[in-house]
Specification:
InterPro entries: HD/PDEase_dom, HD_domain. It comes from Lactococcus garvieae DCC43. This is HD domain-containing protein. With about 140 residues, the chain is mostly helical. The protein has a single domain, classed as Hypothetical protein af1432, CATH 1.10.3210.50. Helices cover about 65% and strands about 0% of the residues. The chain is built from seven helices and no strands. Helix 1 runs parallel beside helix 3 and helix 3 runs parallel beside helix 6. The model has no long low-confidence stretch (mean pLDDT about 85).
């Protein structure tokens, strides 16, 4: 998939120096988990799911001081891939509402696409990789 290669390259460039558990290795695992879940959910939109899975940490406030600027870079990138405003909005809604912290005070409603990305990200937070990522984040922050 050309779109997937383009998004992967864009995300790799953003996360190439990240050593706090949010690097491309994490993104890759989330994408692979999302693909496994997608195989069981034929009603889901794989294009939205994979785009959101790849992009979910590209403007995370824990990682970037200027979230608005980072989000604008992502929007411009998606536009360069001919993603409609509607599709961009759906991707941003998933990213903005899938995190554990964004659901602390009020549970955010996600459709099946968002639920898949959220589950994939949370699955990567469990087990040995979750422990490694927690330590990496603690060491760098």
């Amino acid at each position: 998939m050309i779109f997937e290669e383009n998004i992967a390259t864009f995300v790799q460039n953003i996360h190439q120096d990240n050593k706090d558990g949010h690097g491309f290795d994490h993104i890759y695992r989330v994408v692979q988990l999302a693909k496994k879940i997608l195989a069981t959910e034929p009603q889901a939109n794989s294009d939205l799911v994979l785009a959101a899975a790849y992009l979910h940490d590209t403007y995370d406030e824990k990682l970037y001081p200027d979230v608005a600027l980072q989000k604008q870079k992502v929007a411009e990138f998606l536009k360069s891939l001919n993603y409609s405003k509607e599709k961009q909005d759906k991707i941003f809604y998933i990213i903005d509402n899938m995190s554990y912290s964004s659901n602390l005070t009020q549970q955010k409603e996600l459709d099946i696409n968002g639920q898949i990305v959220q589950d994939a990200d949370r699955l990567d937070a469990m087990g040995a990789w979750g422990i490694v990522r927690t330590l990496e984040y603690g060491w760098t922050h």
